[in-house]
Structures are given as structure tokens and as C-alpha cells.
Design a protein that fits this description.
Layout lengths: L1 E3 L8 E8 L2 E9 L11 E7 L3 E6 L12 E7 L4 E7 L10 E8 L2 E6 L8 E7 L4 E7 L10 E8 L2 E6 L12 E6 L10 E4 L12 E5 L2 E5 L9 E8 L3 E9 L5 H4 L3 E6 L3 E8 L2 E8 L4
Antiparallel strand pairs: 1-2, 2-3, 4-5, 5-6, 6-7, 8-9, 9-10, 10-11, 12-13, 13-14, 14-15, 16-17, 17-18, 18-19, 20-21, 21-22
Length: 294
């Protein structure tokens, strides 16, 4: 699934491809069903897919005339194509709320962020599939209650584990060091108290948590700005009995990341392979890391 936030008539499109042998072919194009003719709704700029459900954010869509309040769409495969099953807006429709500015789905659970809502603190709303519709069951605010810390800029969800970033958080007095919060979801889709995860070596302006992802056995978190020329992605394990444990560090293979200012823009993992995208100074690079036996 590939998003094109200004595709189609400028509202945005999602394009679904299927592989046959060594060839990927376009199978379906999904256009926004939001307000007719709204250019710049950014439909499909942010999306997620778990194999059964496709969730698409349109974080600049107008809602009942409220500018950039945002909406989120859910699709399921009906045997021949992906069909819309729900359109959801925030419980608090807000000007420049940007509901849908990051999204995640897995099974019957979903998370949708509004990362410019409530005095720029950001909120993340938790949703559950009830068999007929997706409904909001809880709203999460930044656990530390601090504004302007980018809470919910990224979300990731696997099973009942939810990871939310707060990449501009102050950590141990260090400004913009950043952190992430790991939640365990209950059967009804609500969340327990989170565990805070910080960088192995917090430093000013690191923006740890700027990129995040989850696998079934690992938590992956990276910073946006490197220290000493080495951009680090940290892998953690989580156990209810012992909490968060750092298990591995993946240091950048680019020796001059800091000088060239190539912050991490995205990461993705299936637990065995970790892909890291870096951009900056008119260039970009993708790095691949593979899990060793240890």
C-alpha cells in the first residue's frame, strides 16, 4: 500500500499493489470520500495496514467546516476490493487538530493521533472494532502533561502493545532529548499506565523517539539528531516482570552523519530485518540491519 497525500484531484490517494512473481501491479486506487473538492486534505499521507485492515489518515480534512480538524478512514477487503467500513473523527473536533497525523492498526485495535491538539500537547485516541464499526474508547494525553513535545507524532501497534513517541520531551533536565511511551492495551482497547523509554545516552536535541516501530519481540526507537557522528537506533525488550531492557544498539554505517545532518526519517522492522531511512542535504540513504544469532 502506497500513499500519495496530494494524489488524484489533490485530496490524496492510496494505491494498492499486489505482487505476482517478480512484478508488482496496481490493483486498486482508493480516493478520498471526504468533503468534495477539498484540495490538500492529505488523505493517505499517513496510513497503516495489518493484512486485514487498512487505516488511512486525512489529517487536514475539514470536519463540518472546522479547518484541518482531520478524519481517519478504515477499509477491509470484501473478497474483490478494499471497501470503506468506517470514517472516524476526533471526540473533540478542533481547528488544526490534525486527527490522523499518525495512525496504527493491528487486529481489533487502532490508534490515531492528533499531534497539534490541546495546546500543541498532542493526543492519541484509541479505537476498537466492535464487529460493525470502529469506535473511540479512550483518549491519551501526554503522561507528563507538557506542551510542545510532539506527543503522538508517531505511533506503532503490534498485538496489545502500543508505542507512542514524544521526541521533544525534556529528559533528566536535558531539553529535546526525547522519549517514547509503551502501553499495554486491555481487552476493551483501553490502555494501562505506560512505561517511559529513554535513549541509552540522552543528549540535547537528540529527539529520541522521532522514529519508532514494534515487532512481536522488540521495541525499536531512534533519534532524529546524532551525537559524535553516530546515529543510533536502540532495540529494547519488554517483560511485565522486569520492565524495559536495552538489548541492542544499531549505530549508523554512515561515518559523517552528524556533519552531513542526515536525521532518521523512518524505520520499519519485521523483527529480523531493520530498515532505516536517512535524509538531508539533498541526499538520502537507506540502511538495512539483520538480526544476528545473539
Amino acid at each position: 500500500v502506497v500513499g500519495a497525500g496530494f494524489g488524484g484531484a489533490g485530496q490524496g490517494q492510496a494505491r494498492i499493489y499486489r505482487r505476482s512473481g517478480e512484478t508488482w501491479s496496481l490493483e486498486q486506487t482508493i480516493d478520498s470520500t471526504g468533503p468534495s473538492g477539498q484540495h490538500g486534505a492529505t488523505f493517505a499521507e499517513y496510513l497503516d495496514y495489518d493484512g486485514t485492515t487498512l487505516v488511512i489518515g486525512a489529517h487536514q480534512e475539514y470536519v463540518d467546516g472546522t479547518q484541518d480538524a482531520g478524519a481517519t478512514y478504515f477499509y477491509q477487503f470484501n473478497g474483490s476490493q478494499w471497501a470503506e467500513v468506517s470514517r472516524v473523527v476526533s471526540t473533540d473536533v478542533y481547528w488544526n487538530g490534525y486527527f490522523g497525523s499518525s495512525v496504527a492498526v493491528h487486529g481489533n485495535f487502532a490508534a490515531v493521533a492528533s499531534n497539534d491538539n490541546f495546546n500543541n500537547r498532542g493526543i492519541v485516541e484509541l479505537l476498537k472494532w466492535n464487529g460493525d464499526d470502529w469506535t473511540i474508547v479512550e483518549t491519551l494525553l501526554p503522561p507528563d502533561g507538557v506542551a510542545d513535545d510532539a506527543f503522538g507524532q508517531s505511533v506503532a501497534l503490534v498485538g496489545n502493545q502500543l508505542l507512542i513517541n514524544q521526541s521533544l520531551a525534556t529528559v533528566n533536565g536535558i531539553e529535546d532529548a526525547g522519549c517514547a511511551w509503551l502501553y499495554e492495551l486491555n481487552a476493551d482497547g483501553t490502555a494501562n499506565e505506560p512505561e517511559r523509554i529513554i535513549s541509552p545516552t540522552p543528549h540535547m536535541n537528540e529527539e529520541f523517539g522521532r522514529v519508532i516501530d514494534l515487532s512481536s519481540d522488540g521495541v525499536f526507537i531512534g533519534g532524529g539528531r546524532p551525537m559524535d557522528g553516530m546515529l543510533t537506533i536502540a532495540r529494547f525488550s519488554w517483560d511485565p516482570a522486569v520492565g524495559i531492557t536495552l538489548t541492542h544498539r544499531y549505530d549508523s554505517m554512515e561515518p559523517n552523519v552528524e556533519d552531513d545532518f542526515m536525521p532518521a526519517r523512518s524505520i520499519g522492522t519485521d523483527g529480523q530485518t531493520l530498515m532505516v531511512g536517512l535524509t538531508g542535504d539533498g541526499q538520502g540513504v537507506v540502511q538495512a540491519y539483520y538480526a544476528a544469532d545473539d
